[in-house]
Amino acid sequence: MQSVPTFDEYMNPILKALHELGGSATNQEIFEKVSEDMGLTDELLSIPHNPERGNQTEVAYRMAWARTYLKQAGYIENSERGVWALTPQGRQTESVDPRRVVSLVRSQYVAKQSRSLSSAEQGESGEPPDLEDETSSDAWRSQLMSVLSRMMPDSFERLAQRLLRECGFVEVDVTGRTGDGGIDGRGILRVQNLVSFQVLFQCKRWAGTVGAKEIRDFRGAMVGRTDKGLFITTGSFSRDAQKEATRDGAPPIDLIDGEQLLDLLKNLELGVQRKVVEKIIIDEEWFQSI
Fold first, then answer.
1. What percent of the chain has pLDDT over 70?
2. Where is the Restriction endonuclease type IV Mrr domain (predicted)?
């Protein structure tokens, strides 16, 4: 079986992906491009990082580490909307020495810790903080995914109903019926109050990967009822599932995986609240300049 690459092995593929994608890309676009370029198999992409803390895969976790190091080293940056982009330094860099990047970032962390006046904040190992601490996004993601995984199936369907309404759908109905070919509900999406079309949706509270078979089964249930489908899961979609969803000559199916679902809940503030925390920074140079 192919082994999962170490986090530093993703650095150059991430830089390459951003260059080829025009200098910026979402997490999902980077993930798909890097996975394809590195020839990562669906089996490897399905390996979970920590099933007890969420549905993030080991590959996604290590890619997040790689992005964090590249960001700290000044090659890439990210916005609050989850879009990563090359910095001026990154645009001039085709490849990096991963070992030098790791050494640079870790030395920056040690220097920062040594300047801290709070002994409670000083690390003893000289290692950067855990990813969940360094990028607070992953901390809330793990907690929220854990909450979703404990929801009852009917509660998760009602959550999807509320989500679609918040996104502009009207007449959203959760069928809640068995033997309906995987159809969990339907809704009408109106575009600028000019046109509207019916969308059938399916919700799967899965910890694993949704494959092409599930997409084909869902499309089969759509035949003769609508030309548009939406598949929502707390897990992820295999590459074959993504290809099947947009296959030529077949009704298209939009896919929302676990990471996108978390972002939607955060942006719409559905069960997610944002709090501003005061951070005190001591300017030692100011005191020394007096």
1. 86
2. 149-265
